[in-house]
Write a structure and sequence with these properties.
With 161 residues, this protein is α+β, with helices and mostly antiparallel strands. It has a single domain, classed as Aminopeptidase (3-Layer(aba) Sandwich), CATH 3.40.630.30. The protein is built from five helices and seven strands. Helix 1 runs antiparallel to helix 2 and helix 1 packs across helix 3.
C-alpha cells in the first residue's frame, strides 16, 4: 500500500469507498436512506474531481495497486489554517495505520499551516478518539456538518502545528 495524490480517473473508486464507509459508519445513526441521499449528493464524481483540482489543496488515496482503501482531502483556508475536509478508511483496513499515514502525509503537504481544523460527527466516537490520539481538541460544535443545511451535528476540532 502506498499513499499518492488522487487523479480524476480515481473518482469512481473513491466514490465507491465513500459510499461503503458512510453506510458502515452512519446507517445505524441516520438510516440507510438518509446516508444514501447524503453520499449521492456530496460524493458525486464531478464534485470529487473538482476537489482534486482545487488550488491550495491535496487529495490523497491509499492504494495497493488493486484497491483504493482510504482517502484524505484537505485545503488551506486563508494563509495559515489547514481544513481537513475528509479522511476515510474502509472498515477492514481500519486500525492498520492507513488513517495515521494519510493524516501525517496531508499535514506534511502544508508546511505553511499553523493550525489544522476539522468537523466530525458527534456520534462517530471512533473518529473522535482517532483525532484525539493525534492531539486534536474540541473547540466547538456545529448543527450543520459539511453543508449549511445538513442538519448533522458535529464537533469542531483543531490542533496547532
Amino acid at each position: 500500500m502506498w499513499i499518492r495524490t488522487a487523479g480524476k480517473n480515481d473518482a469512481p473508486a473513491i466514490q465507491k469507498l465513500l459510499s461503503k464507509v458512510w453506510h458502515s459508519t452512519y446507517d445505524d445513526i441516520y438510516g440507510a436512506k438518509k446516508v444514501e441521499a447524503i453520499t449521492a449528493e456530496w460524493h458525486k464524481i464531478p464534485i470529487l474531481q473538482q476537489q482534486m483540482k482545487r488550488p491550495k489543496s491535496e487529495f490523497l488515496v491509499a492504494d495497493d495497486g488493486k484497491t483504493i482503501s482510504a482517502m484524505a482531502y484537505g485545503a488551506m483556508k486563508g494563509d495559515d489554517e489547514l481544513v481537513l475536509h475528509q479522511l476515510y478508511v474502509l472498515g477492514g483496513n481500519q486500525k492498520k495505520g492507513q488513517g495515521s499515514e494519510l493524516l501525517n502525509e496531508i499535514l506534511s503537504c502544508f508546511p505553511e499551516a499553523k493550525t489544522v481544523t476539522l468537523q466530525v460527527d458527534e456520534e462517530n466516537t471512533g473518529a473522535i478518539k482517532f483525532y484525539q490520539k493525534f492531539g486534536f481538541e474540541q473547540t466547538g460544535t456545529t448543527e450543520n456538518c459539511g453543508t449549511n443545511d445538513s442538519g448533522i451535528k458535529a464537533i469542531l476540532m483543531s490542533r496547532k502545528l
